[in-house]
Amino acid sequence: MNTPSHHRVHHGVNDEYLDRNYAGILIIWDRLYGTFQAEQAEVLYGTRRPLRSWNPLWANVEPLVHVARLSAASKGLGEKLYALIAPPEWTPKAAAEFTKGDFMQQRAYDRDLSQVLHPYVMLHLLPVGTLMAWMLTFDQTLSTPILATGSLAIAWAGIGWTGLFEGKSWALGSEIARHLAIVCALIGLGVAGFNLVLIAPVAVLTLTSLFWLLQKKTALQHS
Question: Which domain holds residue 100?
Answer without folding.
Answer: 56-106
